[in-house]
Write a structure and sequence with these properties.
heterodimer; A: seven-stranded mixed sheet; three-stranded antiparallel sheet; globular; B: 488 residues; alpha/beta; seven-stranded mixed sheet; 11 strands; translation initiation factor activity (chain A)
């Protein structure tokens, strides 16, 4: 065998220098290109991909690259797009899923939740990034638990998913929920032998939880402040304290924090704000703020006669939930889509707004659309009052809505598929990329894909085909910044202050501690 | 109801087809019911339908019209149409334009030899005339051009005729006839010609002899020759034919209005601009498409939920569609290399600091320069104003209404609340008041530029265009016609 093999080999080797030198070169070039492309992909890949998946991730990418290299040309490019499951679909959930150990990397998976046509991941230009806001990409949402570090406590895991799907929405709610989940995580923690709780807990136990939460959705300002407080608290613990005492102490402090800075504060703010609601007021509010809701309900219980206008917007429709709860409480409520804003502002006597955070230059960061509401109200001489706990006050400054923002998955802007016959089909209620649109959009995506392949005349593209159009972007910002001039007053637990006093309160409340 | 439309979705094209078959009264009834049921909506379809309907009304076979009877007939029909859907202002605009055509034809015919544009009171006017001629502002086509063209009610201290609309103007002194071109007038003309034409004005025809391109009226040709031949032609036939010609010009104007507006696209859109627009207006799409051929820009497109978002999505993805039901679509902007970013309406304030221009398409434009546009436009315009972003409004002259917005709430139409919250949610729709306005009123202060098929104008100039196109006595169609004595 060997002898037979040898001459063949020798002849081969004799020929090789001539033939395969060129071939080798070609192959080397191809490899290099593949590696470069993979590197580019990796650079584009977000940092938030948990370290555990990196290896699998790369592996997958090179395979995708290989797959793509096999299929060149336009006709097959679609397939090539389909195979690596849409990268930018709402974030990295799919990549991470594939990166999970249970799935062999070769098989392209179609995540049911990913309803859109495949994005052109492989061409250099990312179809989904709005360049103006490229610093806010990639979008962070997480539909499942693939690739999560093993250190993350189950309570935090659950919380992360709830936050990602907007079941827990609103910065106070998220802050409280996060602290409560951390309590459980801390209770479950045991200090390793060589180190002490204050030193070890934060960096090795809390950090993975925080990173995980961040991968589910960017942290709210209130959550950031709470985490800073918590870290400070833990680090300043007495290292000689026995572990269970330290843990109990931390948990009690967390309870106290939640109680003092959110629960009681909300009551105080509501009591203060409800004085602004007088008989025969017309209160206008936008989207859903827990504290504004509380204020309104409290004022109603006090017996004040007033009515409420709720302005709502796509895609979250939070205002609808607020209007429902007000309606159930027996209030006279009016519900208006955002386009009706100009019409109802004239009737309003007071505008109450909630906040995501108050910035140190007096500006308000709140749900996108708030700035328009405040602007309109200001022009109509209707006072605008912001109710905001001090835990949401921030040291950041921003001049426009582009520097500090959060981009939500563009898929949230998609409507449920429109049946062709009825042009008046009501818009679908907002769902996220996670809960997805179930089977129906999957169906509409399929014919949509075909449509984008041919030259479409028979079938009109729907918004579900947006990924197949190279120059189309969907932008779904979550926040906007309201200039300080439009805000009359900010009510926090330290009293009613003008927006210019925000940095003072911030120093007092968040940094003085 | 005429049976010809049974079985089809009622719409503009269906209506136009049925016009050929039905008799006039049935057609009018059909149109009224389409308007009432909002099966024809938006300015352009309504304007087109009204023009066709009025053409049929005027062209009624075997009917001999004299001017006053024709005016009365058109006024009657117009009143009924406007009453069917008062907020659809394009209907009223077209009716008034047609009335203007009729009056002008009538005047021309009654004074065939003298200068009919400056009817009768030409000399008294020049004698009473106190204000100096303002030749630089009047084109040769403006009825106000030249000294003699000033209606003497302007001297009597009355406010600008176009603005004081809602009053009963039945007894107003006459205005000189509109010039023979019934298509839109160019408001700006070379300054020199009007002085020249003052000197020449005894010959009514001469200012018309060299009309600027694009506003040529075919009517001017035949009539002088006809008259020259010798005024023997019975006036009634003349009126009918000339009015029909005038209405046909109106129809042509409606056809080309978007193209004319789009002609100025390259003047206004430049490279690397970021433009904001909203709703699925054809006019805006055409405007942007024209610019897109030569310039690269970015477009933020607000989707106008809940009334127009589906059409907007379809327009962005597939390109705008021509009139009603035609299968041809223009190319979508994305296919021309323009980056289009779809944003929800709540997000218009956020990127405004980066936006260079806002382009809006109105539903109707009012005489003082304010406009009615799709709901959400007011928020956009206000945000643009705060950031000092220019707001450009694209509108054909047919949308320009002589109505002054005394009560802006009256002008807003409300739409279907089930688009906001479907009726299946019974508890919610029962207890909560859902409001879904279709239009927003945008004040003239918020608009920087109007681009019409006659070119670009500041909002403060629109009253002039109104004056050019509508007769004072037609503005209130409910007024009694003090017909014979006062020549309109």
């Amino acid at each position: 065998m060997a002898e037979q093999g040898e001459p063949a080999e020798q002849s081969k080797t004799a020929d090789e220098p001539k033939v395969s030198a060129a071939e080798l070169k070609k192959r080397a070039k191809a490899d290099k290109q593949a590696r470069r492309a993979a590197q580019k992909e990796q650079e584009k890949a977000p940092a938030e991909v948990p370290p555990a998946t990196n290896g699998a991730h790369q592996e997958h990418l090179t395979q995708a690259q290989g797959v793509q290299q096999d299929q060149k040309g336009k006709a097959t490019q679609a397939k090539g797009q389909q195979q690596p499951k849409p990268s930018k679909q709402g974030g990295q959930e799919v990549r991470q899923e594939r990166g999970g150990p249970s799935q062999p990397p070769n098989i392209p998976l179609r995540n049911k939740a990913a309803s859109t046509a495949p994005s052109k991941k492989l061409p250099k230009k990312d179809n989904t990034v709005v360049e103006l806001l490229s610093h806010l990409y990639p979008v962070q949402r997480r539909p499942n638990l693939a690739g999560v570090s093993k250190d993350v406590h189950p309570a935090v895991l659950a919380l992360g998913l709830q936050i990602s799907t907007y079941e827990i929405c609103g910065s106070s709610a998220r802050c409280v929920a996060m602290l409560l989940a951390f309590k459980e995580a801390i209770q479950a923690y045991t200090t390793p032998r060589d180190t002490s709780l204050p030193r070890h807990l934060v960096s090795h136990h809390l950090s993975p939880q925080i990173d995980y939460l961040r991968s589910c959705r960017p942290l709210a300002e209130s959550m950031g402040n709470a985490i800073r407080w918590l870290k400070k608290l833990i680090v300043e613990l007495d290292p000689d304290k026995p572990e269970h005492e330290a843990k109990d102490f931390v948990c009690e402090e967390i309870d106290r924090f939640v109680h003092e800075r959110i629960t009681v504060t909300d009551q105080a703010i509501a009591a203060s704000a409800q004085d602004q609601i007088r008989n025969d007021s017309v209160v206008l509010t936008y989207a859903k703020s827990a504290i504004v809701e509380k204020t309104i309900l409290q004022a109603h219980e006090q017996g004040t006669r007033f009515r409420v206008i709720v302005v709502d917007s796509r895609p979250l429709f939070e205002g609808k939930r607020l209007a429902t709860s007000l309606m159930r409480a027996g209030l006279e409520a009016q519900y208006v889509p955002f386009s009706g804003l100009a019409h109802v502002v004239k009737d309003a006597t007071l505008v109450l707004l909630g906040a995501h955070s108050m910035l140190s230059n007096g500006r308000l960061q709140s749900r996108v659309g708030t700035a328009s509401v405040a602007l309109r109200a200001h022009k109509a001489d209707v006072p605008v009052i912001v109710c905001c706990e001090s835990v949401k006050f921030s040291g950041k400054v921003a001049l426009d809505s582009i520097v500090l923002n959060e981009i939500a998955p563009p898929e949230e802007l998609l409507l449920s598929p429109i049946p062709e016959k009825s042009p008046n089909h009501p818009a679908g209620v907002a769902t996220t990329a996670v809960t997805g649109k179930s089977a129906a959009p999957g169906k509409s995506a399929a014919p949509g894909k075909d449509a984008s392949e041919d030259d479409e005349p028979a079938k009109l593209k729907t918004l579900h085909d947006w990924n197949s159009i190279p120059n189309l972007r969907l932008l779904n910002p979550m926040y906007d910044i309201t200039p300080a001039e439009y805000i009359r007053m900010v009510i926090c637990e330290y009293g009613s202050v003008p927006p210019s006093s925000v940095p003072v309160v911030h120093r007092l409340a968040n940094e003085g501690m | 109801m005429p049976s010809s439309m049974v079985g089809q979705t009622p719409s503009l094209t269906g209506f136009l087809k049925s016009l050929k078959q039905n008799d006039i009264e049935n057609s009018i009834e059909l149109f009224i019911s389409l308007l009432k049921r909002r099966q024809i909506k938006n300015s352009r379809p309504c304007a087109i339908a009204t023009t066709h309907l009025l053409l049929r009304v005027v062209a009624e076979p075997k009917r001999k019209w004299d001017a006053q009877k024709l005016i009365a007939r058109v006024r009657n029909v117009g009143r009924r149409l406007i009453a069917a859907q008062p907020r659809e202002m394009a209907v009223g605009n077209i009716v008034r334009r047609v009335l203007g055509v009729i009056r002008e034809v009538a005047e021309r015919d009654e004074d065939p030899l003298t200068d009919s544009e400056f009817s009768g009171s030409a000399s008294p006017i020049t004698e009473e005339f106190q204000r100096p001629a303002l030749p630089t502002r009047f084109s040769e086509f403006s009825p106000l051009h030249g000294a003699a063209a000033m209606p003497h009610n302007m001297h009597s201290g009355r406010p600008g005729t176009a603005d004081s609309v809602s009053m009963d103007l039945g007894g107003t002194p006459q205005r000189p006839a509109l010039l023979s071109t019934n298509a839109s007038y160019a408001g700006q003309g070379p300054p020199g010609t009007s002085l020249f034409s003052i000197l020449q004005h005894p010959q009514g025809r001469s200012p018309v002899a060299t009309p600027p391109p694009g506003t040529q009226s075919p009517v001017t040709g035949p009539s002088p020759s006809r008259r020259a031949i010798g005024g023997e032609i019975p006036e009634k036939l003349d009126i009918k034919a000339e009015v029909i010609d005038g209405i046909k010009e109106l129809q042509d104007e409606l056809d080309v209005v978007d193209n004319q507006i789009a002609e100025s696209a390259l003047d206004h859109i430049h490279s690397n601009e970021i433009i904001l627009t909203h709703t699925s207006s054809q006019t805006v799409q055409k405007f942007l498409l024209t610019a897109a051929r030569k310039r690269k820009f970015t477009l933020f497109h607000a989707e106008a939920y809940p009334n127009n978002h589906e059409a907007t999505h379809v327009t962005i993805l597939n390109g705008a569609q021509g009139e009603d039901d035609s299968d041809e679509r223009w190319k979508p902007l994305t296919s021309l290399g323009i980056t289009v970013i779809l944003i929800p309406d709540s997000a218009v304030f956020a990127p405004m600091s980066r936006i260079n221009k806002v382009i809006l398409a109105p539903h109707a434009v009012l005489a003082n320069g304010s406009l009615l546009a799709a709901a959400g436009a007011s928020t956009i315009a206000l945000a643009a104003k705060t950031h000092h972003v220019p707001v450009v409004v694209l509108s054909g002259v047919y949308k320009l209404s002589p109505v002054y917005p005394f009560d802006t709430d009256e002008l807003i139409e409300y739409g279907d609340p089930s688009k906001v919250v479907p009726f299946e949610e019974a508890e919610f729709t029962d207890k909560v008041d859902i409001v879904n306005p279709l239009y927003d009123w945008v004040d003239c202060d918020l608009v920087d530029l109007y681009i019409t098929n006659l070119g670009g104008h500041a909002p403060s100039y629109l009253y002039r265009i109104v004056a050019d196109h509508y007769r004072v006595e037609d503005i209130d169609l409910n007024a009694k016609l003090d017909a014979v004595a006062k020549k309109g």
